[in-house]
Specification:
The complex is a heterodimer of chains A (about 200) and B (about 300). Chain A has nine helices and no strands. Chain A has about 200 residues and is an all-alpha fold. Chain A folds into two domains: about 15-95; about 105-200, Arc Repressor Mutant, subunit A. In chain B, a hairpin with a 5-residue loop joins strand 8 and strand 9. Classes of the chains: A mainly alpha (about 200), B alpha+beta (about 300).
């Protein structure tokens, strides 16, 4: 499912073009910014559903967005405050409905593991990661190896403090930076695994 | 966001991820997640930290149960866990490679070891040769510098010597000129002391020989001291024709007699006999006769006549 910043992922079934346009307009008068806000809300709703233990978080998030879009004509006029909070109210209702539907039947761990067994071996993932790390800039590569390389107790704290001083930034800023680099690596590995074998080293 | 508040947020979000928060807290957290990007990023970091702890086996007890039963329920999170496992394996390998460079060197193949030793020896030999070459070049440069310095020193000395010799030559030239001038001066000026009252008789007449080179005739007229402020001299022919007159002559006082000096052009003397009349000029401007001198001129070569 696409997550491009400027264009919302898709229009759902039963959702008219007009109501979708109205939803975007409600989020922001600027079409570009409205699209970005839409995607951000969607991403955060997915995370919330995931955190609540929903296995079909994306579907629930999309359902939330559709329902708000269908209601937007009625509510937009007199609504005060951040529209995102309205989405939250709708998401809660959707979650309750989901609970009733599935009786919150939690799949067994083994089922999840089996269902998500990657086609690629661990070595393939490792090779992709190696390639992705090599593609990082030298400072980012150094940062991520040093930041996550020492992961235990006082050594970890000291090393990260040392690293923050070296980079001339606060510990929290360093953490954010390291996390972003790691996220980019995660995406890079994921993309690498999607490519055919012959193109993985690109 | 301060470090402390960020840490507190993360601790709360960790509890949220493990399902350990109240319903009220959950609502507050989720609403903030929807409206605050920093808070949402904080959730992602807390999630990452939790996954790392799980992968490294650092979650134990009730938390471990919560993690497995709740956190791993979503397939996307299983992917995250897979990534984290690979990532930490990679980091561990990198760390061990960095910490054990010596053991790596030991397991080098023999041929490669030999090659590397050979290369190292070649490098050392090259270094020694370069050093020796450098020293040689430095020595040669030093020698060249010394030779240049010596040559400059010699050149300086030679220049000094040449200058001295030039000065000597100049001195000699000046000496020659001075001597020539002295010798020619002797030849061009004839001097004669005349005593007053000497008779015209040839035996008593003062005679002066004028050569062709004689340009001037210096005459010293001696007389008894008188109280005149100045003197006047007249050169006359024996016939009484005044040839030359000199006024305002200042006397020189000697022990017994006084004298005045006359320097006359030699060409003035075209005849052989002359009289010189010396008069004194007193304070009133009156002129008194003081002395008369007789002079006989002998010319060795013909002179230009007016």
């Amino acid at each position: 499912m696409g997550t491009t910043g400027s264009a919302p992922h898709k229009k759902q079934e039963g959702l008219t073009t007009e109501s979708f346009a109205r939803l975007l307009e409600w989020l922001d008068r600027d079409r570009e910014r409205a699209g970005q806000k839409y995607e951000l809300i969607r991403l955060r709703l997915i995370k919330i559903f995931v955190c609540r233990g929903c296995s079909s978080a994306e579907e629930l998030a999309d359902e939330t967005l559709d329902r708000v879009a269908r209601k937007v004509e009625e509510i937009a006029e007199g609504y005060l405050g951040d529209p995102a909070l309205y989405f939250y109210g709708v998401a809660e209702k959707i979650y309750l409905e989901y609970g009733k539907r599935s009786r919150l039947s939690v799949p067994l761990l083994g089922d999840v593991a089996e269902r998500n067994q990657p086609a690629e071996t661990e070595d393939t993932r490792y090779a992709c990661l190696d390639q992705c790390i090599k593609n990082l800039s030298q400072p980012n590569r150094e940062l991520i190896l040093l930041y996550y390389g020492h992961n235990h107790g006082k050594d970890k704290i000291d090393k990260r403090k040392e690293l923050a001083e070296k980079w001339g930034i606060r510990a929290n800023a360093l953490r954010i930076r390291a996390h972003r680099i790691r996220e980019s690596l995660k995406k890079c590995v994921s993309d690498c695994l999607q490519r055919p074998y012959s193109k993985r080293s690109e | 966001m301060t470090e402390t508040s960020s840490h507190n947020d993360e601790m709360l979000l960790r509890r949220y991820l493990l399902g350990e928060v109240s319903e009220e807290e959950q609502r507050a957290i989720e609403q903030r997640l929807l409206t605050d990007q920093d808070y949402f990023d904080c959730l992602l970091r807390a999630e990452e930290g939790l996954i790392d702890e799980h992968v490294q086996g650092r979650i134990r007890g009730r938390e471990a149960q919560e993690f497995e039963s709740r956190f791993l329920r979503n397939p996307a999170r299983c992917d995250q866990v897979e990534f984290a496992k690979t990532f930490h394996r990679y980091l561990a390998n990198q760390l061990s490679q960095r910490e054990a460079p010596v053991s790596q060197a030991i397991v080098l193949p023999r041929w490669r070891l030999a090659l590397e030793i050979g290369l190292a020896c070649a490098l050392i030999a090259l270094g020694v040769f370069s050093l020796s070459l450098f020293r040689k070049v430095t020595g040669l440069r030093e020698q060249v510098r010394e030779a240049q310095s010596l040559a400059e020193h010699h050149a300086g000395e030679l220049a000094l010597q040449v200058k001295r010799e030039q000065e000597q030559v100049e001195d000699l030239r000046q000496e020659v000129a001075r001597l020539e001038s002295a010798s020619s001066g002797a030849a061009t000026v004839a001097s004669l002391v005349l005593v007053p009252g000497v008779a015209r008789n040839a035996d008593w007449a003062a005679t002066v020989n004028l050569s062709s080179q004689t340009k001037k005739l210096k005459l010293v007229l001696q007389f008894d001291e008188g109280n005149y402020r100045a003197y006047r001299a007249e050169l006359q022919t024996v016939e009484g024709t005044v040839v030359w007159t000199g006024d305002g002559l200042i006397p020189r006082k000697g022990r017994d007699m006084s004298s005045v000096d006359l320097t006359l052009p030699a060409e003035l003397f075209t005849r052989s006999d002359y009289l010189i009349m010396l008069s004194g000029v007193n304070a009133n401007g009156n002129v008194d006769k003081v002395a008369t001198y007789y002079l006989n001129i002998v010319r060795k070569i013909p002179v230009r006549r007016p």
